[in-house]
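A protein record in our archive is deliberately plain, so that people and models can read it alike. The tokens are whole numbers drawn from a learned vocabulary of local backbone shapes. For reference, a complete record is included directly beneath this paragraph.
>
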Amino acid sequence: MSFTWPLALLLLLLVPLALLAYYAVQQRRPKYAARFTNLDLLANVVEATPGWRRHLPAALYLGALATLLLAVARPHTSIQVPKEEATVILVMDVSGSMNAEDVEPTRLAAAQDAANVLLDELPEGFRVSLVTFSTGVQTRVLPTADRDEVRAALERLQANGGTAMGDALDHALDITLIGDQPLDPVGGTPTPTPTPSPSREDEDTPFVVVLLSDGYNTAGTTDPLDAADEAVELQVPVFTIALGTEDGVAEVTDGQGRTRTVRVPPDEETLEEIADRTGARFFSAPSAEELESVYEDLGSRIGYDSEERDISYAFAGAGVLLVIAAGALSLLWFNRFP
């Protein structure tokens, strides 16, 4: 919480001053009571001492004073406002290292399950696109509101080949320019497609890229950080997820057809830099449970915007209620107001 007029908070010094004044008045009460010399008669006149009830209205008045003074400073806070629509481009690594079993049952299976969690968390009005990459890049699903189509495409994924992370991110940015028109596959058989325009088809619909990778960029022609710079120009945030552990191993087939077991640690440094440059956030997911937690968090972040709201009215209303409560108790218990 922050304040429009923070200097007005100095007025809160009135609260301890009022408390001291109340204490001083209470200290003088025994002196006045002593003037009534017939104490036996006084005991018969007064049914019972008010005890703690005597101080409760005063405490409520002090609380009301503090709350109203806070309202003068115009407090405001950041709240989460649901987005009406957006397009999320899910970019998933399906290279051979995704067969590693350091994330149970495998990295790919964990990624598939977690992606379904993200689909559950996103608002219904959001469109989702699925792009996968290994040695080449493929658009599995163009932007759509049909979640079942995305889920079906996720189930069909298989892991093999290298890691063309830069090409994949560049390809995802092309989708933000073209929208739901078909794109040429990267590393596959080209098909006739329109040339991306220099600006988005619909500027009112924001795009968000979620990039999951478990290894270093080993294929393609685009450097991942160059693609990140392009995302900055297009104002597309790229949330990144590093899947797997430093000790993860996978069986890969080399150019001569021989199968070898190699270490396949994720490239956290590059993924974190991509997120930082594009104003998004980087996540490390060394386990299936943490990956699902990441996607749950992403769903809440992507589905909402932070908006500053003035809440001085709430403090003012609370202050008025405290004044009313204090006055009501004072009338009920002591037949006086205040």
About this structure: Residues 2-78+309-334 form one domain. The CA atoms of residues 106 and 306 lie 36 Å apart. The two ends are 32 Å apart (CA to CA).
